[in-house]
């Protein structure tokens, strides 16, 4: 009974123990669940901590890079500031130099002002002297012009450089400009010879010459630019050959009695072919007639055409000749004498049988006087 009683007493204890064990198990399960949650939370926290460590490391690297960049920029700014400081110092030095220059210029301007004032006073003095001189000169000029006018009226030839043609008043209000053999240009009343009979002869002006003489004085290029007509140029060259002893190819021959010089149509044809190489004989014959017509016109009919009957090899033929009559008035050749040494005389004196349509006109007008001032 005792054991049974003891058993009865122990039974509740076991149940209690079992309950306690169950409670402990439940608590253990609860604790295990909490532990799992805590471990999960710890793992999450560790992961977050690792992320934050990485973020911190990245931020630290960024901070380091920024610090490096900032330091570099600060160094650059320091250098730039130093450069600007140097430039400012240079500018200050330049400003000081400019200030010195301005001071120097001010001093020079003051000196110039003083000098200008002196010059102004001197100019006023010289103006007064010039005005007085001008008044005296005007009176002297009027006296000189009166004397020159009287001398010109008397026939004097005065140097052009010494005469004011716009102030001289002569009868007819005309002065003629002439060039003398000394190369100087003179003024005179038209057609008045020098009463002092000086040795200088009056040279003809360009306008005093016949057209053929004017063309003959031109060189080949100017002659071509003056006229395109070949007969006109040949007429000028033919006259040049007659008038200029330096020309080698001269077809002119000396005449006699009433003929001063002449050239035959045949000689003229050969001369034209020599002057114009390559010219055919037939065309040269045509050029002979055209050249004769041109020189008659350009000489204002001072020349003439004559026909002469000749006999050769038993045959009689008529030959045309371009002649310069002995009484022809050629400007600059009024008293011309032909030298026998420069041109061969014809063996027999030419006899004129008949005149062509372009015969010499004894009443042909004289060339107009050029360079007449009015």
From TrEMBL:
Residue spans of biased composition, Acidic residues class: 363-374
Keyword match Cell division: no
Q: Which domain of life is it from?
A: Archaea
The record's section on InterPro entries has:
DUF8008
Pfam families listed in its UniProt record? DUF8008
Coiled coil stretches, renumbered: 14-62
Q: Where are the annotated segments for Disordered? A: 326-374
Q: Spell out the Low complexity composition-biased ranges.
A: 343-359
Asked whether the UniProt record includes Coiled coil among its keywords, one would answer yes
Q: Which UniProt keywords apply?
A: Coiled coil
Q: What is the protein's given name?
A: Uncharacterized protein
Q: Which organism is it from?
A: Natronolimnohabitans innermongolicus JCM 12255
